[in-house]
Amino acid sequence: MNLDAKDILLQRIAGRTAKIGVIGLGYVGLPLATIFAEAGFSVVGVDIDERKVRQLNEGTSYVEDIETARVAPLVAQGLLRATTDFAALDACDAVSICVPTPLRKTRDPDISYILSAAGAIAEHLHPGMLVVLESTTYPGTTTEVILPTLQHEDTSLEVGKDFFLCFSPERVDPGRKDYTTANTPKVMGGTTLACLEVGRALYSTVIETLVAVSSTEAAEMAKLLENTFRAVNIGLANEVLLICDKLGLDAWEVIEAAATKPFGFMKFVPGPGLGGHCIPIDPQYLSWKLKALNYTARFIELASEINTSMPDYWVHKVQDALNEQGKAVKGSRVLVLGVAYKKDVSDLRESPALDILMLLQDKGARVIYHDPHVPQFRHDGLAMTSAANLDAALAEADCVVIATDHAEYDWPAIHEKAGLLVDTRATHLQLQRSVASES
Ligand code: SAJ
Q: Final residue of a domain: which of 213, 247, 267?
């Protein structure tokens, strides 16, 4: 009985003899490559960054969620290796694409990384190969972009028969300990039913819960909904701040009170704006796709408008606070506490703290920053180093802006030492909590 490509691949998956390729060895790709290797598969990671490739082949992890102690033995046993050479895909039975999907300067989707990965796979596509796209992208990318790249006119290979194509969005939240790649439910859609069957067979060897949906588009949309939900609700929380300002109310007090409702409410809080490489970006992929279909995703646009206006709102608060003391922003010494996009991370991508810092500089303030996670940075031609002595920086500042509420800051001490404070993260609540817990 001659086995078809699907049966052969399913057998290799069941026997753990399938060879796995992972394109993109970042905070998504390295954990995925690691759990496949830990399951006994031979895994090759392909990345354009020679430094990552070298470190991994030395048995060293450069991703905070994966300890070197997990990677080293896998590399030593030959189960996990890395290369910059896409020819390694020739030997692969399955390839997962885990490359970035950023925005261009024009705020349009940049799927160039996905395109080059798909183009590289097309050169090495062979019967019995599974391709899974994990990068967050607009609905239709797998069908309209990846599929035609793989099933191009010069190939006789047919999707669902000779090769298999799925979309399964990554749900990695860097630094999170409770949810990992293995125990976070994973949505998956196949181009055909056979594709879904093969994709599920492979991923269920390493992921506890797979959630099958009817198409790759449904899977692409589910991921965008997850992160658009956050962006819109953060936008609402920021608008609540603007509203409470007009009403003379403390937005955080109001939100804390609403959050005591045990059902039908989910707490989001105002802040300096929307940072990170997921939440500000993903909804724009959806909005862009809908514009092409002559539809305006108004919630997304409005949330983006409010979220991107927050740095300006906070700079006006600094202006008002200094004004109260008869000081102009121009020439005033302003200390920005925390420049990372959220607490306890070192990531600066889309960080609103940087927008606040640069707006203040544009107004002539003498701005310094302190961030225990960011000793120095270079951004948009601006290069700065974190203040060496926090106490001295607090004492010298005419105004202190709390932009990122890292847990390691001693907030009672900072509130005591700061003369003038503009707090975008309501750390005064953390003071109240710490006082309450001491009593
Ligand atoms: N933010 C607020 N108010 C809030 C929550 C967040 O202003 O109530 C700000 C943050 O300071 C940050 C931005 O929004 O600047 C994004 O915050 P985030 O908590 O969504 O953090 P991210 O960008 O790390 O989101 C990731 C996402 N994970 C994935 O895409 C796999 C998101 O889906 C997770 O829900 C989120 O982590 C999480 O819960 O930590």
A: 213
Alpha carbons 246 and 306: distance in angstroms, whole number: 16
Residue 255, in any domain of the structure: yes
Please confirm, yes or no, whether 278 is among the known catalytic residues. yes
State whether the beta carbon of 236 lies less than 6 angstroms from ligand 1. no
Query: Do 359 and 255 reside in the same domain of the chain?
Result: yes
Please tell me whether residues 405 and 292 are part of one structural domain: yes
* Pocket flag, ligand 1, residue 341 (CB < 6 Å): yes
303, two tokens: 């949330």
Q: Does residue 218 sit within a domain?
A: no
Nearest atom (ligand 1) to Cα of 170: 31
Give dist(CA 45, CA 81) in Å, integer: 6
268 CB near ligand 1 (under 6 Å): yes
Considering the candidates 98, 195, 278, 399, report the single residue annotated as catalytic.
278
With contact defined as beta carbons under 8 Å apart, do 23 and 46 qualify?
Answer: yes
268 CA: nearest ligand 1 atom: 8
Q: What is the CATH number of the domain that holds 402?
A: 3.40.50.720
Task: Convert the pLDDT of each residue in 254-312 to its tens digit.
Answer: 999 999 999 999 999 999 999 999 999 999 999 999 999 999 999 999 999 999 999 99
| Statement to judge: residues 165 and 26 lie in one domain | yes
Q: Residues of the chain with pLDDT > 70: what percent?
A: 98
Q: What is the mean pLDDT of residues 202-220?
A: 98
For the Cβ of 271 lying below 6 angstroms from any atom of ligand 1, the answer is yes
Q: Whose CA is nearest to atom 15 of ligand 1?
A: 275
- pLDDT digits 0-9 by tens, 175-188: 888 999 999 999 99
- Asked if residue 118 and residue 31 are part of one domain, the reply reads yes
pLDDT at 175: 81
Cβ of 226 closer than 6 Å to ligand 1, yes or no, is yes
Cα 270 to ligand 1 centroid, rounded to whole Å: 12
What is the value of pTM for the model shown?
0.94
Q: Is the pLDDT of residue 71 over 90?
A: yes
End of a domain among 153, 186, 213? 213
Determine the Cα–Cα distance for residues 406 and 373; give it in Å rounded to an integer.
9
List alpha helices for 384-426, DSSP H.
390-396, 411-417
CA of 32 to the centre of ligand 1 (A): 21
Decide: 237 in ligand 1 pocket, CB within 6 A.
yes
186 in the same domain as 91: yes
Buried b (16+ CB within 10 A) or exposed e, 291-316: eeeeeebebbbebbebbbebbebbbe
In a domain, 426, yes or no: yes
Domain membership of residue 163 (yes or no) is: yes
Nearest to 92 by CA among 202, 236, 167, 216: 202
307 and 195 belong to one structural domain? no
400: domain range?
A: 227-438
The answer to whether residues 428 and 342 belong to one domain is yes
Q: Does residue 57 have a pLDDT over 90?
A: yes
Q: Say whether pLDDT at 434 is over 70.
A: no
